[in-house]
Amino acid sequence: DTGVSQDPRHKITKRGQNVTFRCDPISEHNRLYWYRQTLGQGPEFLTYFQNEAQLEKSRLLSDRFSAERPKGSFSTLEIQRTEQGDSAMYLCASSHRDEQFFGPGTRLTVL
Amino acid sequence: KNEVEQSPQNLTAQEGEFITINCSYSVGISALHWLQQHPGGGIVSLFMLSSGKKKHGRLIATINIQEKHSSLHITASHPRDSAVYICAVSLGKNAGGTSYGKLTFGQGTILTVHP
After folding, report:
1. Which alpha helices (H) appear in A15-88, and where do they start and end?
2. Mutation site for B-interface testing, chosen from A21, A100, A106, A107 by largest number of B Cβ within 10 Å
3. What is the average pLDDT across A16-43?
4. Cα–Cα distance between A77 and A87 in angstroms, integer?
């Protein structure tokens, strides 16, 4: 399968714990995006990489959130000191030009 | 006011009916995307368009740039079409001619097609 993959698919954690999600984009795609989707809403943009450079971060991305794409391939999104409000689906997408291809998402539940 | 508005928010249809979902946006865009999301989260791109009309099977997407409006039509709807349909826009272009990349999404339309 050569699509976008995300790991884990589900994560349940206790408030205050740190979590890290991984996204593996389609191999030839130089752009990678993270979005967050809460129940009943459309996704919201979090951050965007072109190769290894993080070019834009949303104001939604508080200091507790950090994202990396160290070699311009896979990316990680870390949330420190999780809060119940962080519970959401975290979606990764990649693109070569304008069309974006989405991964299956990581569903985070913070208890 | 959201930059991307969809209507209706919920839509119920009988199998075989013609379905229309509307999307209006308030900003200049480089492209408009129609996406499909099934329960469990996975999002699939249906169309990306910047002008005119595109057709794929029973799905048709149109866009009117002057009116900042797009529609997604499903002909001969089927229960397997039941999903959330999301309109999203790419804003602007950089000097290289490609879009800035990030998508701004509508809230989605929940479509249920009954047999």
Report:
1. none
2. A100
3. 94
4. 14
